[in-house]
Write a structure and sequence with these properties.
The protein is mainly alpha-helical. It is built from three helices and three strands, in the order H-H-E-E-E-H.
């Protein structure tokens, strides 16, 4: 009888440890997947902004002037689908038209939190156009923020 009680206690303790290990494993997997998913959204955002900047270059080549807004870019020619003007979080990107005084235009995503400023996963991406003239700036945005 005493041995039955000890056996039940040992079996209960082993079950508790086993459940604890499974829960720990699940927490690690969920956190890892969440971080991976967020990093993929950053990559998606970076490449979307690059594509918009390149589309601005193509717009200028076709029309003789830079687009003054995202809607002008979307209406073309060549047309640029509206769904391509969103970041990895599904928000429309901020567009600053080309400025002679600056020497570039820019497209910006305010990152995961959707607010200006931020580091890490909330980092704001800014890609500039004309794309070929701003290659160093644009590459730095990717290399230092998402390709670490």
């Amino acid at each position: 009888m005493k041995q039955d009680r000890v056996t039940k206690v040992v079996v209960g303790a082993v079950c508790i440890v086993f459940v604890g290990l499974i829960m720990s494993y699940l927490i690690i997997v969920i956190r890892t997947r969440a971080k991976f998913h967020t990093e993929m959204r950053q990559r998606q955002t970076y490449f979307a902004l690059e594509n918009i900047a390149i589309a601005c270059d193509k717009y200028r080549a076709a029309n003789g002037h830079w687009p003054s807004s995202l809607s002008e870019l979307q209406n073309g020619p060549p047309p640029y689908p509206p769904e391509w003007c969103t970041d990895g979080w599904g928000r429309v990107v901020f567009f600053a038209p080309y400025s002679e005084s600056r020497g570039y235009g820019k497209v910006i995503s305010y990152g995961r939190d959707g607010m200006p400023g931020g580091d890490g996963l909330d980092y704001d991406f800014e890609i500039r156009f004309p794309f070929d003239v701003n290659t160093n700036w644009n590459d730095e945005q990717g290399q230092h923020r998402i390709l670490k």
